């Protein structure tokens, strides 16, 4: 491969820009049941599929990682949780809807969280969450739900640890 002078365009500069974001997902268990949320028909990426509560870090607003996961769970399902340590890391890519276009690489951590409250509600969610349902699902049935694809290996890891 020919060398490239400093500051000159090289083979990688022709690629679309890739942004980086961090997300956390909460695996909330109570009484042998896991809380799942369903994406609405308006979700641009995974309409009708199931996942666990969570979302991307707000760099200017979240004080620390525990604050971040507490905020996400509160906004999506109205629960207060006690965050546990991460048990799985993974990534996914999504289109960047900003003016630059390109892609966003999302690095995510899954955390088992203990619920402090149990009455889940979707009333706090932001419209961009695109959720239309939530359910406390028996652990032995959780893998049978139509999960978003990137969450499937994480669910297997969670269930292997839970069982």
Automatic annotation (TrEMBL):
Keyword ATP-binding among UniProt keywords: no
Pfam family, one: NUDIX
Origin: domain of life: Bacteria
SUPFAM superfamilies tied to this protein: Nudix
Keyword vocabulary terms for this entry: Hydrolase
InterPro entries: NUDIX_hydrolase-like_dom_sf, NUDIX_hydrolase_dom
Cofactor(s) required for function per UniProt: Mg(2+)
Statement: the UniProt record of this protein carries the keyword Hydrolase: yes
Molecular function GO labels: hydrolase activity
Gene3D superfamilies: Nucleoside Triphosphate Pyrophosphohydrolase (3.90.79.10)
Domain Nudix hydrolase residue range list: 19-160
Classification via PANTHER family: GDP-MANNOSE MANNOSYL HYDROLASE, MUTT_NUDIX FAMILY PROTEIN
Protein name: NUDIX hydrolase
Species in which this protein is naturally found: Actinomadura darangshiensis
């Amino acid at each position: 491969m020919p060398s490239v002078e400093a500051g000159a365009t090289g083979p990688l500069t022709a690629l679309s820009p890739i942004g980086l974001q961090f997300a956390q997902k909460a695996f909330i268990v109570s009484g042998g049941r896991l809380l799942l949320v369903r994406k609405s028909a308006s979700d641009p990426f995974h309409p009708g599929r199931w996942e666990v509560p969570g979302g991307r870090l707000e760099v200017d607003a979240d004080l620390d990682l525990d604050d971040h996961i507490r905020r996400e769970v509160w906004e999506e399902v109205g629960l207060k949780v006690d965050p546990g340590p991460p048990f799985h890391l993974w990534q996914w890519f999504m289109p960047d809807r900003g003016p630059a276009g390109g892609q966003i690489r999302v690095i995510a951590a899954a955390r088992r969280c203990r619920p402090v409250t149990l009455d889940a509600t979707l009333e706090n969610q932001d419209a961009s969450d695109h959720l239309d349902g939530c359910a406390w699902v028996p652990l032995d049935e959780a893998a049978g739900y139509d999960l978003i694809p990137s969450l499937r290996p994480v669910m297997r890891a969670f269930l292997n640890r839970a069982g």
